[in-house]
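Protocol step 4 of 6: structure prediction from sequence.
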Amino acid sequence: MDRGRSYPLAQAAPLAAIPGVRLISLQKNDGVEQLMHLPHGMAVETLGDAFDTGPGAFLDTVAVMQALDLVVTSDTAVAHLAGALGVRTWIALKYTPDWRWLLTREDSPWYPTMRLFRPQHYSDWAGIFARMAAALREIVP
């Protein structure tokens, strides 16, 4: 399922370069090793080893999401959780997305607080994050 769906964390560097923006990782398990190899100048805060451990899966994630201004994710459970919570969420979609995201919309009929960023060609993560950075500059005070 993950093939082509998840972007390399380093692709989010244009967001981290915007003054006033702090990146906070909600990532667990697979992919956390990318935090050790960030591009120069890119910082991502983590929430510690106890984040979302124990029997209440996603309880910490829910609490953190509700305190964030924006969740940026790929098509994962985090996207659906944020959408269900009504949290402002931007999704970086793969070229041929899951059926739930339809094919041409920039919004979601199921999650009104969600914005969809689609690639112009296969594996166009750089293009997606350039457009996200431009959109983020418009809303960051």
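Step 5 (inspection) to follow. The first strand starts at residue 23 and ends at 24.
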